[in-house]
Design goal:
387 residues, Ribosomal Protein S5, domain 2, Alpha-Beta Plaits, 2 domains
Length: 387
């Protein structure tokens, strides 16, 4: 239904028929937060909401972008080669960046194209709307110009674009999940060497409930880069003699034994989150493989406490959502997901209690904040694809 509507919209906007339509999902991260830039192990999964792209090649060097989400902005036009990041170019910086990074890697565009995009990921929700758009763009270009890079390459190039072009110092987890997702499977990704395995999510009588705080956040304007800097400083201090490759390579025992090397308590707490979260991720994978939802829920709770207290990337709104739902019948556990400072939390909830849990958390949230929460059940989905 969305595909047909968007192709009609494309024809109206560009006065020509579309050539192809693509979809890139958003993602949730089950556990393993803020460690993908420390060589840690993460457990994301693609979800069924995401970003659609309708495209047609041109014969000239003109590129035209149009968003059905921001119709008032009209059509953005660029001539190849695209220039550098420019704030006035709004959301198209995420698509321009991909073109620039690919060109630098030897994948030059021989002609322009027209692209209409539409996303149904709530903006600023922490469900990776930016990675979804970036991976969508990279995959469209791969197929439109017969480029030979892989899905893993797609994740690498799109991360590079967000780092070097947009200026967000993110890790690779989001882009990897969007590019590599599979239905009903999470991905255990080692962000050190990009090795991965799929982990089946068999929640027969339970579901993953997404709770959107509707408190928007932008990574560029948040404390994300500061947290990364702080944890890297902690790593430099503790690693002066031990010579590990990444902060996540430390065991908890090694961290405790060398605590005196990080004299700043704040920096120690940043390091403690990274090391303990890496351990929790591996324990969570084992819990899923054993179908031990009680243990998995406990690990979700522990993860949120660490993100709140050690890494300080939660918010009053996220804490309210998580702590409200943690105390309800039928809930195994809950945590914030994504970069934090706003956005979404997730909870593992028995299906028989889903409706009641949703109603209670919405009511409590509305009574105690200036926002209204949205809730929806996560459908674990495939990665970027032509539809």
């Amino acid at each position: 239904m969305i595909k047909n509507e968007l192709e009609k919209k494309f024809e109206t906007v560009f006065q020509k028929k579309a050539e192809a339509t693509y979809f890139a999902p958003g993602r949730i991260n089950l556990i393993g937060e803020h460690i993908d830039y420390h060589g840690g192990k993460v457990l994301p999964a693609a979800i069924s909401i995401g970003t659609y792209g309708v495209v047609k090649k041109r014969e000239d060097n003109l590129i035209q972008f149009y968003s059905a989400n921001f119709e008032g902005e009209g059509i953005y036009q660029f001539t190849l080669p695209v220039g550098e990041y420019d704030k006035k170019d709004s959301w198209t910086n995420y698509t321009k960046g991909i073109i620039k990074i690919l060109d630098d890697a030897g994948y030059s565009l021989s002609h322009g194209f027209d692209l209409l995009v539409y996303g149904n990921i709530p903006y600023g929700s922490g469900l990776s709307s930016s990675a979804s758009l970036e991976v969508l763009m990279a995959w469209i270009l791969k197929e439109l110009y017969n480029f030979d890079y892989s899905r893993v390459d797609t994740a690498i190039y799109t991360k590079q674009s967000e780092n070097d072009y947009v200026g967000v110092n993110c890790g690779i987890m989001d882009q990897f999940a969007v590019a590599m997702g599979k239905v009903n499977q999470a991905m255990l990704l080692d962000t050190n060497d990009l090795s991965y395995e799929y982990v089946p999510i068999e929640l027969t009588d339970s579901s993953i409930l997404i709770m959107n705080s509707n408190r928007k956040r932008g990574l560029e304007d948040s404390l994300y880069n500061q947290r990364r800097t702080e944890s890297e400083q902690a790593f430099e201090l503790i690693n002066s003699t031990l010579k590990k490759e990444y902060l996540s390579d430390f065991t908890l025992d090694e961290l405790y034994e060398n605590k005196e090397m990080i004299s700043d308590e704040l920096l120690y707490r940043r390091a403690h989150h990274v090391v303990s979260e890496n351990v929790r991720t591996m324990e969570a994978v084992q819990a899923l493989k054993n179908n031990d939802l009680i243990e998995f829920g406990n690990l979700l709770n522990q993860s949120h406490a660490s993100l709140k207290n050690d890494y300080e990337v939660s918010s009053l709104e996220l804490d309210l959502l998580v702590e409200t739902v943690q105390n309800l019948e039928g809930v195994y556990g809950a945590r914030m997901t994504g970069a934090g400072f706003g956005g979404c939390a997730i909870a593992l909830v028995e299906n028989s209690q889903l409706e009641k849990v949703s109603e209670i958390v919405k009511r409590v949230y509305k009574e105690n904040t200036e926002y209204e929460a949205d809730t929806y059940v996560a459908e674990i989905y495939n990665g970027v694809q032509k539809i």
